[in-house]
Design brief:
- By secondary structure, this protein is an all-alpha fold.
- Helices cover about 35% and strands about 0% of the residues.
- It has 4 helices and no strands.
- The longest helix has 15 residues.
Length: about 100
């Protein structure tokens, strides 16, 4: 077996973490740019409620920084449990902004 054949399965997006730079080309929820996995996996209960599933990091952070906990970010109002997850997401994003 050639080295290329052994490495092939390892060369997938799930094995690479993006370097953020200005965040204009990295998807906020879909790409792995912070934490241990893409945010859609880390916050799998919030992700389906997002109105901004395909927003870039730059775009989402711009919306978030203008009005954290803005109801327009979410498809429906968040219950108490989801509000706690939103608090956790906010604490992560504070480190980036």
């Amino acid at each position: 077996m050639h080295a290329d054949q052994r490495l092939g399965p390892l060369l997938t997006a799930k094995n690479f973490k993006w370097s953020l730079a200005n965040g204009e080309t990295i998807l906020f929820w879909e790409d792995w740019w912070i934490g241990d996995a893409p945010l859609k996996l880390l916050f799998h209960l919030l992700y389906p409620l997002s109105n901004h599933k395909l927003s870039t990091v730059e775009s989402f952070l711009s919306i978030w920084s203008r009005a954290p906990r803005n109801p327009s970010i979410w498809i429906s109002p968040l219950n108490h449990e989801l509000s706690l997850l939103e608090d956790r997401l906010d604490s992560i994003l504070e480190k980036v902004t």
